[in-house]
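Re: your question from the hallway

Yes, I did run it. Sequences:
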Amino acid sequence: MKITDARVVVCSPGRNYVTLVVETEDGLTGVGDATLNGRELAVASYLRDHVCPLLVGRDARRIEDTWQYLYKGAYWRRGPVTMAAIAAVDVALWDITGKAAGMPLYRLLGGASRDGVPVYGHASGATLDELAEDVQRHLDLGYTAVRLQASVPGLETTYGIAGEGVYEPADAPRPHEAAWESSLYLDFAPAMFARIREDFGYRVHLLHDVHHRLTPTEAGRLGAALEPYRPFWMEDPTPAEDPSAFRALRGHTTTPIAVGEVFNSIWDCQQLITERLIDYIRTAVSHAGGITHMRRIASLAELYGVRTGPHGAGDLSPVSLAAALHLDLAVPNLGIQEHMGHTGPYTEVFTHAYTFRDGYMHPGERPGLGVEFDEAAAECFPYEPRYLPVNRRLDGTVHDW
Ligand code: GCO
Ligand code: MG
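Structure:
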C-alpha cells in the first residue's frame, strides 16, 4: 500500500492547527496533527521540507519501521519539533491502517479496556464566586472531574482564566507579558480549594495546574496545604525538565502529582516513572511521537503503577483528541483525559465521531481515527501568528509561564 502524497495544511479555524494529510495508491487518506502552539510553522517546514518527500513511495502499513526510520534516521533525536512531526506521520499511518481494516483504531490497539474515557473539564473564574458558578456549569454538563483555576488577588492576569468561551492563551502576534509572584499564589490556592469543597463537597474530582511555576520547596508546601481538600492531582508543580526536583517534593506531600505535557519522548519520562516520583504521566500523542511511542510510555508507566493523564488543551487539534481517545480506551492504565474542548468555527474544518456524555468520552466506531479534515474549508481560515504569553515577576524578572 504505497504512499502517493503527503502534504501539510496550516489553518486557523479558531486557533492555528498544522495538519498532515497522507494519501495511498488505493485511495485511502490519513490525517495527523502536528500543531506546536506558537511554533507551528517550524513543524510545518520540518514535515514539508524534510519528511514528506521521504514518505512518498513507502508502504503505509509499515508504521513501526517508518517511526524508526524517521527517529533514528534524522540523527538529531527528540525535541518538540521533530517529535511532533514524527507523531503526525505516525497517527496518519494508524488512521490509514484502521480505514484499511474497516475498524476503529482502538480495536487495532487491543480493544476497549473500559466503556468510556473519564475526562476532566476546565472551570475558571476571575473571582471565587465566578469559579463556583463555572464548576456548577460543568457539573450540569455532566463532568465528574474539573480543573480549578482562578485569578490570584494582587496579580493583573492569571494563567488559565477563560474570557468568553474556552481559555486560549496564545492570543497575540507578539507575546503578551503576564505578571507572577509565587508568594501571592501560594497564599491563595488553598483558599480556592477550600471554597469549592465547601460548596460542592467531596464527590467531584478537583484538579489544578501549577504550570511549572514553583520551586520544589514551594511546591511541597502547596501540596501539603491542599491535602485536606484531596485534589485528584497537582499538575506541573515545578519546571518539568528537572526530575531530581520531584524527589525533594515527593517527600513533603501525598498530593498526587501529574507531569509531562511538555515532554516529547519516553526518555523525558523515564526517571520520573521508574523512581515513582509522579502519579500521572501527561504526555500527548501529538507531542510525544504518536501512538507508537505513547503506547511505550503507557506500558513503562504501567510497570511502575503510574497512570496516564494525557494533555488535551484546545491547541491540540480534534485529530489529536481523537487519537488520544482511541489510546485512552485501549490502555489498561488510563487515569483521566483532559478535555478542554475547541472553540471557533473549527467544525467547518474538522468533523469527528468522538462524543461526550456524563463525564465520559468515546472515540466512536468509524474506521481509523474517525475524524474528517476538509482541506477546501481549511483554506478559508489562513494562519495567524499568535504567541503564548511570557511571565515576569513583579520586579521584572522573566519567570516560567
Ligand atoms: C493544560 C496546559 C495548557 C498549556 C497549553 C500551551 O494543562 O491544558 O497547561 O493550558 O498551557 O497547551 O500551549
Ligand atoms: Mg498543563
